[in-house]
């Protein structure tokens, strides 16, 4: 496999290398929270100053595991479903689900900006089940390509980088366009959003892009009452990891309002038919 320079990605697109660093480093550990061979292959094939993102941690691997669990459940019930991966970046969820035996009959729509999609085409294997669309998630033309009644949309690591009106507008349009479907996305807490708007440095060499959109877990649940077509909303917990990540996943902590307001969250929406 060729070695590619990761500097071809910039801005928000470069954050996919941050998440790859965390996920692949975790996957290489014997006690890692995720098994992700393709993430390791990508990491080893892309030459980049990964350490400018700071010391790797479990966060993005645990997030990926949470998304995998919900997609696996959906695909078990709907094996011919359409999975739409908005702003997919260098995620490798498709191959993890394939290894789990639930991807045989699905159609996978991989959507991201052209430089990211070109990198995926160079480094990841072709598969007839994957429909690659080189465009912004905010360009709603991708909706015209998605077929089938059972649709599961993921926006892993996307909405926080959007303006609030764009983020909510995307959710609203998905609910209107895909009745009976589901949409899953992760959120940062408001305090962290404010921190990024002031310039959040991961190291002395890298400042994270601004993240203007934030929601608490309870604000995510409230979308069922505020967006037409959203039948139900669930707060999906991160699985327990090691050390502080295991402590943070301890269920009684979530009954403390101050903790609940400041933790990251994952929201799963179910759309009405």
Q: What does this protein structure show overall?
A:
GO terms for molecular function: methyltransferase activity. Helix content is 37%, strand content 18%. It is α/β, with parallel strands linked by helices and 273 residues long. Helix 1 (15-27) packs across helix 3 (59-77). The protein has one domain (60-271): Rossmann fold. It contains 11 helices and 11 strands.
Q: What keyword list fits this structure?
A:
273 residues; alpha/beta; Rossmann fold; seven-stranded mixed β-sheet
Percent strand = 15-25%
Question: How many independent structural domains?
Answer: 1
**Which spans have pLDDT < 50 for at least 5 consecutive residues?**
none
How helix-rich are the residues, as a percent range?
A: 25-40%
Strand order of the largest sheet: 5-4-3-6-7-11-10
CATH class: Alpha Beta
Q: What name goes with the CATH superfamily?
A: Vaccinia Virus protein VP39
Mean pLDDT: 97
Shape: globular
Rg from Cα: 18 Å
What gap, in angstroms, lies between the N and C termini? 45 Å
- Helix segment tally: 11
Total number of strands: 11
CATH arch. level architecture: 3-Layer(aba) Sandwich
> What's the helix-strand series?
EHHEHEHEHEEHEHEEHHEHHE
Quote the CATH topology. Answer: Rossmann fold
Structural class call reads alpha/beta
Largest pleated sheet: 7 strands, mixed
GO molecular function, one term: methyltransferase activity
Pfam families: LCM
Keywords: Methyltransferase, Transferase
Protein name: Methyltransferase
């Amino acid at each position: 496999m060729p070695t590619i320079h990761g500097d071809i990605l910039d801005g928000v697109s470069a954050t996919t290398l941050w998440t790859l660093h965390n996920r692949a480093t975790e996957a290489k550990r014997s006690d890692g929270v995720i098994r992700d061979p393709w993430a390791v292959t990508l990491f080893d094939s892309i030459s980049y100053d990964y350490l400018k993102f700071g010391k790797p941690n479990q966060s993005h691997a645990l997030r990926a595991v949470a998304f995998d669990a919900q997609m696996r459940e959906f695909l078990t019930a709907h094996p011919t479903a359409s999975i739409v991966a908005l702003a997919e970046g260098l995620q490798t969820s498709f191959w993890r689900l394939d290894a789990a035996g639930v991807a045989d009959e699905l159609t996978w729509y991989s959507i991201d900006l052209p430089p990211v999609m070109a990198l995926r085409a160079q480094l990841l294997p072709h598969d007839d089940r994957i429909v690659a669309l080189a465009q912004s998630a905010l360009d709603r033309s991708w909706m015209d390509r998605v077929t089938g009644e059972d649709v599961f949309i993921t926006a892993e690591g996307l909405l926080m980088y959007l303006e609030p009106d764009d983020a909510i507008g995307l959710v609203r349009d998905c609910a209107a366009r895909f009745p009976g479907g589901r949409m899953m996305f992760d959120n940062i807490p408001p305090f962290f959003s404010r921190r990024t708007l002031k310039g959040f440095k991961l190291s002395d060499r890298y400042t994270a892009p601004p993240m203007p959109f934030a929601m608490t877990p309870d604000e995510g649940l409230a979308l069922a009452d505020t967006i037409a077509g959203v039948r139900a909303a669930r707060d999906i917990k991160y699985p327990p990891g090691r050390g502080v990540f295991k402590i943070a996943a301890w269920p009684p902590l979530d009954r403390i309002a101050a903790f609940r307001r400041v933790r990251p969250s994952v929201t799963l929406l179910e759309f009405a038919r």
